Amino acid sequence: MFVRNQWYVASWDYEIDRAPLARTICGERIMLYRKFDRSVVAMHDACPHRLLPLSMGIKEGDNIRCRYHGLLIDPEGRAIEMPVRGERPHKSICARVYPVVERHRFVWLWMGDPDRADPALIPDFWPCSHADWNFDGDYYHLKCDYRLVIDNLMDLTHETYTHQGSIGQQEILDVPIETRVEGNSVIVSRWMSGIEAPPFWRNALKQEGLVDRWQVCHFLPPSSVIIDVGVAPVSVGSTLAKHDQGVRGFVIDALTPESDISCHYFWGMTRNFDTQDVGFTARLKKQQAAVFLEDVAVLEAQQASVLANPQSKMRAFGIDSGGVRARHIIERMIAAQPAAAGDSSSGG
Amino acid sequence: MFVRNQWYVASWDYEIDRAPLARTICGERIMLYRKFDRSVVAMHDACPHRLLPLSMGIKEGDNIRCRYHGLLIDPEGRAIEMPVRGERPHKSICARVYPVVERHRFVWLWMGDPDRADPALIPDFWPCSHADWNFDGDYYHLKCDYRLVIDNLMDLTHETYTHQGSIGQQEILDVPIETRVEGNSVIVSRWMSGIEAPPFWRNALKQEGLVDRWQVCHFLPPSSVIIDVGVAPVSVGSTLAKHDQGVRGFVIDALTPESDISCHYFWGMTRNFDTQDVGFTARLKKQQAAVFLEDVAVLEAQQASVLANPQSKMRAFGIDSGGVRARHIIERMIAAQPAAAGDSSSGG
Amino acid sequence: MFVRNQWYVASWDYEIDRAPLARTICGERIMLYRKFDRSVVAMHDACPHRLLPLSMGIKEGDNIRCRYHGLLIDPEGRAIEMPVRGERPHKSICARVYPVVERHRFVWLWMGDPDRADPALIPDFWPCSHADWNFDGDYYHLKCDYRLVIDNLMDLTHETYTHQGSIGQQEILDVPIETRVEGNSVIVSRWMSGIEAPPFWRNALKQEGLVDRWQVCHFLPPSSVIIDVGVAPVSVGSTLAKHDQGVRGFVIDALTPESDISCHYFWGMTRNFDTQDVGFTARLKKQQAAVFLEDVAVLEAQQASVLANPQSKMRAFGIDSGGVRARHIIERMIAAQPAAAGDSSSGG
User: Fold this and answer.
1) pLDDT tens digits, residue range A234-268?
2) Cα separations (Å) of A18 from A40, A58, A63, A72, C164?
3) Which among B121, B151, B175 is the end of a domain?
4) In chain C, at which end, N or C, are there fewer CB atoms within 10 A of the end residue's CB?
């Protein structure tokens, strides 16, 4: 029910240090920690001996010793010291380790066949790690199916109502959206030509005059949405295909399923303006937290309603075209994958 | 498992106003609100678009706008405005509405086929809405099968033990009960001839001398119990068939299933004495709350015990004859109803 | 899934008095109380009438009256008074009573066929009730399968890591253990010859010089572990077979399943030294509580991990030989018992 053989965001870079962090990803309990060389270890969070979570263990250098009987596990998941001294651990005694790559400020885990874990398949979140851009954000836990969040992000009309007390704008509704599919990606774009810049963007642009404004939502499988937003003076002649002038941001939304009905949400914004303004960054995070609570209330209530109304089906309107197409891609990817086998969460 | 095609009490009249009230009835999530004309709307509490509870929505006049994408629904459950302006909602986009009637101080919902919703079938709670009577009461939520409450109410011997700290009386046990069935109704009566009135009733009657006293429990399907209580001077010659002299009250107990193991309890007392005494009414409600907590402890513990002891069966003694017969009627009504179909809680 | 036809510890002697104590044992809800003669009654905790827990009832002498309708039950579980006076209870109206014996400071219940309840089958916890020994301890509730606790107790190497902040010692790991099975009992022994006594035992022994030290874990079916610990001067020539000189204690661990994933843990220590030192006894209990919290954290996390990792199997190392053999005995006993029938928890 999850898309396998994919890179998922397991955490922000700043969430992990030498002490283990326990997080369940695609139903698998995983422990994450950094080695002295700062590289990240991701391991099944159950001792291969008696299944005690290894995240409760004692770090010894880059190894971890189980808190129960003291089995010592190295960063490759191999038992290297038995509870009784002098015994040699059999090589079959090991915890599953997950391919892990740190990139674009996130720690990515490969959930699936390790032999297929190609870092080139990690989505290109380049504005999150580009020197000219400023990127920051937060981690949230949501009690809902990650696909409900993707629906939410691929249709920004919800801002008008869900966020009417904060960022909602009626004007958004007046501009039509365009939805298109490119391979396994979905793009929903809204292009506003020759308008007055709203206050947020006027402050960012720091100049008068009419602007072109855009909101382009990209669904990237299996579960990310990147929203390209910004304005540029009409004079520079921006197009949907090319709009790298003016001021621009990318809202980064990386979702990672925890279970069928819960997920991890890594939210951030990266921008190419006021990049040295620490106060701006802090205000943005604080504002986003308030907006986000409005989404949490809606998404968790929607999930509860879905569970309580098994006979009721969700309907799709025109505004849902982006989410619908993203779900189709997810379903197709799940259907294409072989029935789970040799791919268990077993710590062995 | 619930009796369908019945009127159930959804709320007290005073519980509902223009803001939506969410309540689950017979397993269906329902939203209730009043229109400007004070009539009550009862609607499936899930937006026909993406299932967000409509009770989280924004009231616009008598309509409700979904908090998620702004679908506007009228009081008949029809979508009248799409999230994107200018689009015309298809008439299939609608939320189920429930027949609703306000009568005898309660809001009644018809759970079943709307074409069969005949207000004449609403139980006749006339003393709740008669000008010469004073009626007040409260709402309680109980974590037990509503039938356990009916058992409780159809056998007042429990007062002696469950309520030994409050209203319990040993004397009750000395007078035999009579149980009879009239159609789908069950009547358990206890007639005490020529006795001293207990303090409560002596205060009400305001005269000396021996009285006849009665306690007559009426089960009215699917799930109400009305208890006719009172005393009259021996001299007026009351009988079980006719006892409208003296002082009299009806304890009103309307149960509405929420789930298999929880229910809504609408309790009240209506009386024909001291009807203008506001202090008496307030004291009565306060006393009842204390008595009621004793019932809650017993009923919820009994429900937990029933669930924990699947091999144990409840036994019926003579005192249970009223409850047993009420349960037979409920079972017969459920057996007689067609297998659920076209009767789903689906919002559409 | 539980071993039937066995004596289980239901409580410490000091936990029960005339007011009923409710405790679920092997999935059966049971009420325990003392009669005036101090003998203990154990009864199915559900009124044979309407299943209200009898433990909510009203004690009348040695009988208990149900809080709901007042059915009066005698200590043999027989109804002796009906809710309505004058009615004679039918002899079929009864609550199941359990054979119960108070011995060695514990109250033992026979879970199974009452005709087979032979007190001679109660495990011989003689040091708990011998005049020359001092015995005290506590009750704990654990959210884990009782067999995880047996594993824990049959392998004391865990002390080194789980209890590294309290009683853990690296030295324990250097001495090999011996495991043997005697009938349905398992013995894991660690014999340390001619060593320096550690501080605890030197204080107990009150003399200088090298000692022999022992740790002998006895598993007694269905679910007790007794650990024989102590030291004796080398001069007395102790052996594993005979070591009744010196100072000695027995750690008593009686486990009683509550459900598949929870259990009751009756822990105590009995000793033959400083038996009149009340302060020592109190300190020992206090220290044990701190140690015990370390076990609780591990055992409950292990249980959660077992449930969350259905595909992962626990591995057994050499140190687990005692627990493995104890589990084999438990499995064999369960396999040997007839499929449950006539052995229900039904109160009748």
Assistant:
1) 999 999 999 999 999 999 999 999 999 999 999 99
2) 9, 11, 10, 16, 20
3) B121
4) N
Q: Which residue on chain B is closest to A161 by alpha carbon? A: B67
DSSP string of C222-238? TTEEEEEEEEEEGGG--
The span from the first CA to the last CA of chain C, in angstroms, equals: 22
Helix, coil or strand: residue A334: helix
State the average pLDDT over residues B42-62. Answer: 98
Instruction: Give the pLDDT of residue A164.
Output: 81
Examine residue B194 and state whether it is found in any structural domain, yes or no: yes
State the nearest Cα–Cα gap between A348 and chain C, in angstroms.
8
Partners of residue B67 in chain A, C-beta under 8 Å:
161-162, 298
Kindly state whether residues C308 and C204 are assigned to the same domain: yes
Does residue B127 lie within any of the structural domains?
A: no
Terminal-to-terminal C-alpha distance of chain A: 22
The CATH number assigned to the domain holding A40 equals: 2.102.10.10
Phi, psi of A167 (to 5 degrees): -100, 5
Which of B317, B324, B327 would best serve as a mutation to test chain C binding (most C beta carbons within 10 A)? B317
CA A315/CA B52 separation, integer angstroms: 12
Of B28, B35, B69, the C-alpha closest to B52 is B69
Residue B278: CB atoms within 10 Å: 11
* Spacing of C-alpha C42 from chain mean position: 17
- B83 and B139 part of one domain: no
Which ipTM was obtained for this model?
Answer: 0.90
Q: Which of B28, B52, B262 to mutate to test the interface with A (most CBs of A within 10 A)?
A: B52
Q: Clarify whether residues B141 and B272 are in a common domain.
A: yes
Question: Are C74 and C212 within one domain?
Answer: no
- Tokens 């069928």 map to which residue? A260
Weakest mean pLDDT among B176-190, B231-245, B253-267, B333-347: B333-347
The reply to whether B245 and B166 lie within a common domain is yes
Mean pLDDT of the region B250-279:
96
Instruction: Say how far apart CA A121 and CA A113 lie, in whole Å.
Output: 14
Cα–Cα dist A282/A261, whole Å: 31
Are C46 and C164 within one domain? no
Last residue of a domain, one of C101, C121, C141: C121
Residues of chain B in contact with residue A308, where contact means CB-CB under 8 angstroms, are 24, 29
pLDDT greater at residue A194 or residue C1: A194
Asked whether residue C316 carries a pLDDT value surpassing 50, the answer given is: yes
Q: Domain check: are B99 and B232 in the same one?
A: no
Q: A44 with A142: CB under 8 angstroms?
A: no
Would you call A312 and B56 a contact, using CB atoms and an 8 Å cutoff? no
Does residue A216 fall inside a structural domain?
A: yes
- Residue C259, classified by CB atoms within 10 Å of its CB into exposed (0-12), middle (13-18) or buried (19+), is middle
Query: What's the total number of domains in chain A?
Result: 2
CATH of residue B227: 3.90.380.10
* Residue B156 lies in domain: 132-336
Note whether residue B326 is domain-resident: yes
- φ, ψ for residue C72, nearest 5 deg: -105, 130
Task: Please give the residue of chain C at the shortest CA–CA distance from A343.
Answer: C311
Contact across the interface for A83 and C157, Cβ inside 8 Å:
yes
